[in-house]
């Protein structure tokens, strides 16, 4: 039994790593196409039908491009930084239940790598560590733009982490558990039981914090090309650069699954739609929303991010916790 469990865990880890690495690459193509459509352009068109082989071309370029380390960079830290971003992005997925249980050749498969009773705490903690990748990458590079990007990482980390943590407290008070499976089961009654209806403010606050965590517009301060060239990644090339962005897109999917599980009914059946398909549809809608926002919203300044987080979002999150506590008391 112990050997079977170890083999199953290894297979799940390999599947998660392979599937989400591939999806991260495909998402770059989808993002280009969506942005092009919204801006009345064509996007990738020349490499393969409708430019679909652009993903393969990008992959070949990343593997073939020279991978150099700047002369005055702190070499060990410079090399480790991309590994931190990529590895933490996939480690955070280990406590996320992606689909409901299903049977395969008579064997019950649970699509979660590790069902721990503090799942959401684990995911948020590991995802937070991931921002040390851009921070160390920017600090170790011999480039002032990289250093500015790394400094902005610290600003963003301190600002959005407070909001995301406080935003989750209110729905967790209602559920009474930190397990993502328990949170999903709490909404098993159907569409009307989704936590977004009882916690709309928490949903909005956590979604806004999700933009900052995934370094998406309008909170892409770490690599703002109009101000700091490419920020923390200015000195990176080849697969070291690619690992940063594989981690970024993997985090995008993690946040989308977390939002779906906590606020949108998770993988419970939705009317005639089975749970596995339902959560895929929810995640696709959220991914589209993230991409849509990039096409529609301008960048903000670091001081605007801090002002928004500390003076607007954090007080709203605290008020939401107080209101939820009073409602539960009475």
TrEMBL record:
Topology within the bilayer: Multi-pass membrane protein
Subcellular location: Cell membrane; Membrane
Enzyme class: translocase
Record EC number: 7.1.1.-
Membership in a protein family: Belongs to the complex I subunit 1 family.
UniProt GO MF annotations: NADH dehydrogenase activity; oxidoreductase activity, acting on NAD(P)H, quinone or similar compound as acceptor; quinone binding
Function: NDH-1 shuttles electrons from NADH, via FMN and iron-sulfur (Fe-S) centers, to quinones in the respiratory chain. The immediate electron acceptor for the enzyme in this species is believed to be ubiquinone. Couples the redox reaction to proton translocation (for every two electrons transferred, four hydrogen ions are translocated across the cytoplasmic membrane), and thus conserves the redox energy in a proton gradient. This subunit may bind ubiquinone.
Pfam families in the record: NADHdh
HAMAP family named in the record: NDH1_NuoH (MF_01350)
Any one biological process term the GO annotation gives: aerobic respiration
Reactions performed catalytically: a quinone + NADH + 5 H(+)(in) = a quinol + NAD(+) + 4 H(+)(out)
Keywords: Cell membrane, Membrane, NAD, Quinone, Translocase, Transmembrane, Transmembrane helix, Ubiquinone
Gene Ontology CC entries for this record: plasma membrane
TM ranges: 6-30, 80-99, 119-136, 157-174, 194-212, 249-267, 273-293, 305-329
Top-rank taxon: Bacteria
Subunit structure: NDH-1 is composed of 14 different subunits. Subunits NuoA, H, J, K, L, M, N constitute the membrane sector of the complex.
Protein name in UniProt: NADH-quinone oxidoreductase subunit H
Organism: Halarcobacter anaerophilus
């Amino acid at each position: 039994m112990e050997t079977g469990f170890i083999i199953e865990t290894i297979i799940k880890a390999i599947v998660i790593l392979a599937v989400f690495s591939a999806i991260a690459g495909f998402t770059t193509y989808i993002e280009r196409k969506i942005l092009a459509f919204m801006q009345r352009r064509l996007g990738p068109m020349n490499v393969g039908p409708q430019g679909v082989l652009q993903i393969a071309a990008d992959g070949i370029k990343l593997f073939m491009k020279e991978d150099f380390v700047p002369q005055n960079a702190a070499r060990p830290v410079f090399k480790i930084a991309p590994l931190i971003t990529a590895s933490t992005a996939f480690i955070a997925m280990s406590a996320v239940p992606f689909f409901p249980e299903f049977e395969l050749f008579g064997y019950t498969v649970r699509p979660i790598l590790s069902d721990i009773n503090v799942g959401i705490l684990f995911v948020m903690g590991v995802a937070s560590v991931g921002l040390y990748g851009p921070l160390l990458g920017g600090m170790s590079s011999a480039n002032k733009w990289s250093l500015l990007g790394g400094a902005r990482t610290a600003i963003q980390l301190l600002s959005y982490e407070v909001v995301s943590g406080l935003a989750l407290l209110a729905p967790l008070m209602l559920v009474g558990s930190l397990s993502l499976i328990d949170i999903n089961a709490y909404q098993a009654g159907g569409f009307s039981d989704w936590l977004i209806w009882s916690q709309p403010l928490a949903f909005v606050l956590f979604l806004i914090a999700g933009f900052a965590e995934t370094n998406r517009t309008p909170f892409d301060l770490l690599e703002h090309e109009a101000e700091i060239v490419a920020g923390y990644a200015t000195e990176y090339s080849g697969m070291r650069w690619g690992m940063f962005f594989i981690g970024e897109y993997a985090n995008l999917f993690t946040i989308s699954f977390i939002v779906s599980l906590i606020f949108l009914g998770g993988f419970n059946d939705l009317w005639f739609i089975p749970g596995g398909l339902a959560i895929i549809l929810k995640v696709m809608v959220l991914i589209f929303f993230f991409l849509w926002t990039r096409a529609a919203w301008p960048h903000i300044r670091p001081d605007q991010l801090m002002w928004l987080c500390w003076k607007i979002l954090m007080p709203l999150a605290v008020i939401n916790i107080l209101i939820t506590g009073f409602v539960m008391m009475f």
